[in-house]
Specification:
The protein is mainly α. It has seven helices and no strands. It has one domain: YjbJ (Protein Yjbj, Chain: A), CATH 1.10.1470. The N terminus is likely disordered.
Length: 93
């Protein structure tokens, strides 16, 4: 039961259903802030996912779903894995 609950919690956090404060316990940028500061943050996204081109990162414009989709496509991973990577990256900001 605990494993299922943890999986749901992580998935909900990755999708932005829970606030970052509920999941990390500290001040982390929410997606509105990320989107608003995308010009400054896109370099960090390129550092994290080096196979993405500058144009691809710019195309995402801070949109979580678009960024996850680009990662999924470029790295050939499952949608859920891409979403988890984006959520982990968000916690580092």
């Amino acid at each position: 039961m605990q494993k299922v609950a943890a999986g749901w919690w992580n998935r909900a956090a990755a999708l932005g259903v829970l606030s970052v404060h509920e999941t990390s316990g500290g001040p982390v940028m929410n997606w509105d802030q990320i989107e608003g500061n995308w010009k400054e943050l896109k370099g960090k996204a390129r550092e994290q996912w080096g196979e993405l081109t500058d144009d691809e990162v710019q195309q995402a414009k801070g949109d979580r779903e678009q960024l996850a989709g680009l990662i999924q496509k470029k790295y050939g991973i499952a949608k859920e894995e891409a979403e988890e990577q984006v959520a982990a990256w968000q916690k580092q900001l």
